[in-house]
Amino acid sequence: MKLRLARNAWFNLLGAAVPALVMLGTVPLVVRGLGEAGYGVYALVTAIVGYFAVMDINLTAGSVKYIAQHRANGDAGRIFETISFGLATYAGIGLLGALGIHASAAWLVDAVFTVPPALHQEATSTLRLAALAFLFGQVQIYLNSVPQSLMRYDISGRLEMVFGALLPLATVGVLALGHGLFEVILLRVLASAIHGLLLWRAIRRLLPAWQWRWPGGGARAALLRFSGWSFLSRFAALSYAHADKLVIGALVGVAGLAYFAVAATLANRVLGLSFRLSAVFFPAASALAARGELARLDGVYLKATRYVAYLNGAILVLLAVFAHQILDYWMDETFARHGATVLALMALSQFVDSLTSLPSLVNDGMGHPRVSGLFAVVRALAGLGVVGAGVAGWGIDGAAWGHLAMSLVFATAFIAYVHGRTVPTSLGRLLVHGYLPGLAGIALVAIAASTADMLLGDSLHAFMAIMAATVLLLALHGALFVVERDDRERAWARLKTRCQLARARAG
Which end of the chain is more exposed for a tag (fewer CB within 10 A), N or C? Predict the structure, then answer.
């Protein structure tokens, strides 16, 4: 069975990396186009829509597992049943959520959140329009999972890359033409609808014999049982991810929310890219578990952990050490002054959380979503209280400290619990072969970069020089101590082959 993990991981990464780069490049233009208060309302609207996504019972998780499993066993009929049930479920969720958002829009804007009176009408109409985006978005979410369950991340990744890059650019264009927040959300509605149609077209090409087949009671029960536990993880993650913005919007106001949202979005988007590399493990683990190939799963899991932990650690160093300079040159001094601490803390929190991504995916692929679901729920409940208290006492910095505290406690507990139990790799092997090769050297580079940054000042030339030296040291460490010998030799052989081909063509 060919998993094509590297190829799928690459396309899945591109599907997030290119849109993230474009989005980060356009955020200053969007903030200027909407104004700080307007951007705060925009962040509030997206947070409210995201919070309504807790209605999603995460049937995508069950679908990916069972489609991958049925594909490994050659059962096309069960694949068709799974897709039919998923489509019907997500269309229903999208419709119910859209009605809820539309009905509560005026109350949320007028009575719950601190929105400037001049923006009340626009915020209400925009939130009602966002209800339609929720409907299309739910169907798109499910359709996006189908090629992934078939290990065709090239399809989902390409579409995400195109739409994710074009949408921020089109948003800037809409604002440049003098339009506002309502038109920005309308653009998102249209993009989501077209994206969904193209995904459906791709699915029909992958499954030309597909036909609508409603699953029997046993198949529905298995899907819902697995998805129900996975839903706990999704419910907790969505609640926790958006609650801080809602609390800040209510207690601090939309201006403070803008500072927090920009810094947190940068940390989440950049460090979230590695999850795209990890995500391909879920269908792969499901297929390997179905075939009983646990030794193979252990090997690829440790190698992936080694590389992903190193990559995230390197990114963390750059974001945390140079947080103030990044926000200053990317946005302006005001955002740097208010958001540098948030960026550094949220980057560290995201890094700690990223260490749980691969274990969670393998745990679920092995058929134990109850474990990850219960951990996620407890973490969310504790986190909501801690982050809320942080906002009440210390504003947006308090929210970031609360996130970091919860990440450290629950990531450590989850990693220690699942290894050797639901993940077929011991904790000792994970620490020695997964974490130690990359993170020990990265810690030394971080200390050196922080020291140089304090000693050499904040000038642009000093920042660029220290940043370049840090990147070089991180790259050398990765090449010498993290990348495994077989992979180095394979990469070198491939590079020599390409150079020889280029010489032959030139001659």
Answer: C
Could you tell me the pTM of the whole model? 0.70
Contact 366, 424 (CB under 8 A): yes
- CA distances (Å), origin 108, targets 112, 141, 374: 5, 26, 30
The answer to whether 400 and 339 have CB atoms below 8 angstroms apart is no
Nearest Cα neighbor of 337 from 283, 276, 259, 407 is: 259
**With contact defined as beta carbons under 8 Å apart, do 359 and 347 qualify?**
no
Place of tokens 């029909």: 204
* Nearest-angstrom CA–CA distance, 73 and 83: 17
Burial class (CB in 10 A: 0-12, 13-18, 19+), 506: exposed
* Sign of the dihedral defined by the CA atoms of residues 28, 331, 340, 391, in that order: negative
Q: Identify residue 25 by its one-letter amino acid code.
A: G
Residue 420 DSSP SS3: coil
Q: Is the separation of the CB atoms in 147 and 202 below 8 Å?
A: yes
Residue-wise pLDDT tens digits, 6-31: 777 778 777 877 887 888 788 888 88
User: Phi then psi for 208, rounded to 5 degrees?
Assistant: -60, -25
Tokens of 213: 């087949």
The most confident of 64-78, 218-232, 409-423, 482-496, by mean pLDDT: 409-423
Which residues are within 8 A (CB) of 229 and not within 5 positions of it... i.e. 6 or more apart? 369, 370, 372, 373
- How many CA atoms lie within 13 Å of 457's alpha carbon, on the beta-carbon side? 4
Rg (CA), the chain: 23
β-strand partners of 423: 419
Q: Which token pair is 387?
A: 């982050």
Element (H, E) at 403: helix 369-418
Report pLDDT for 20: 79
pLDDT at 1: 45
* pLDDT tens string 238-269: 666 667 777 887 788 777 888 888 888 888 87
> Is the Cβ–Cβ distance between 67 and 149 less than 8 Å?
yes
Per domain, the residue ranges of the chain are 1-215, 227-473
H-helix or E-strand containing 161? helix 153-176
Q: How far apart (Å, rounded) are the C-alpha atoms in residues 138 and 43?
A: 19
Q: What is the residue whose two structure tokens read 């840090």? A: 470
pLDDT score, position 216: 85
Average pLDDT, the chain: 85
Query: Quick check: helix, strand or coil at residue 207?
Result: coil
Q: Give how far the C-alpha of residue 306 lies from the chain's centroid of Cα atoms, to the nearest Å.
A: 20
